Amino acid sequence: MTNINDNHVDDHSNIISRIGKCIKQWFIQDFDQNSGELDAAFKNNMLVVATLIVAVTFQTGINPPGGAWQDTKVEPGGHEAGKAILASLHLPYNLFLILNTLAFSMSTQIILMLVYNSKLYFEVVVATVSMVATYGMAVWSLSPDKDVKLRYVFMAALFPYLWRLSFQTFKTFFINKPTKIGKHIKQWFFQDFDQNSGELDAAFKNNMLVVVTLIVAVTFQTGIKPPGGAWQETKDGHVAGKAILASGLHVPYNLFLILNTLAFSMSTQIILMLVYNKKLYFEVVVATVSMVATYGMAVSSLSPDKDVKLRYVSMAALFPYLWRLSYQTFKTFIKKNETTK
After folding, report:
1. What domain of life does the native source organism fall in (predicted)?
2. What is the DSSP letter of 174?
3. Which of helix, strand or coil describes residue 230?
4. Where exactly are the structural domains of the chain?
């Protein structure tokens, strides 16, 4: 009888240990696929999935369900032009923003981890961070102060990065037990996604092209159709066809335009670099330049002259190309000096 009970206890112990092992693999081994690294094809597919989630959540945050009010009513229970209509329903709108921001932020984190230590990483980071800041400015501008708890939205945006930092810290101290703690602090976020060769393999390059193309698509749409829409008629000091957001919130609208333009311009630059020296390159250049010019014309047309500093927007558009030119010039100069020595 005792042996039977002991066997029964052992069976339960085995089941519990198996469950514990599975949980550990799910949450601690970073999707370990025997080799300890993410398979290249799986990594590329994850990049596509994360990019698609970023695209749809970005658009949803910029243009929330129900749209924005087109006029201002001051009476009790009134509303302000350019603010989200859905914000009238306080709890649903707050939950919508928190969940959408969590999905958006988690996916941008995945993208940054997957492209870590690859060529063009700086450009991808600048484009992604600018897009995140654009999202934040748009959400803040669309949300009525009294109705929306933006601190919870901010916490949702930070959660993926804090979670990764906490997890990697735990892993470093209690699992890997490195001999020199803190030697590679910057790799705490990225140690499971490092591409040792530092080169872009063909499939990964193709997926990076997908990433930046989607960033171009969402930032182009956002520049053409800014949050809050445009005035439908000329009255009360505003002009039909001008962005509603620009009328009352000058600084947020300028920041929104600068950051959105930086993400858009940086991504178009990456596209031109990735397809350089390929067939149809001329056609791609013409299409891209035409799209950039269309974006510029739309932004200029939507922006009231007295409220928007378009020179800063132009500087943001030129920055990626000037930075790349400066970097390449510096790199060439250093190489020549080393050869001379």
Report:
1. Eukaryota
2. I
3. strand
4. 39-67+79-226+238-340
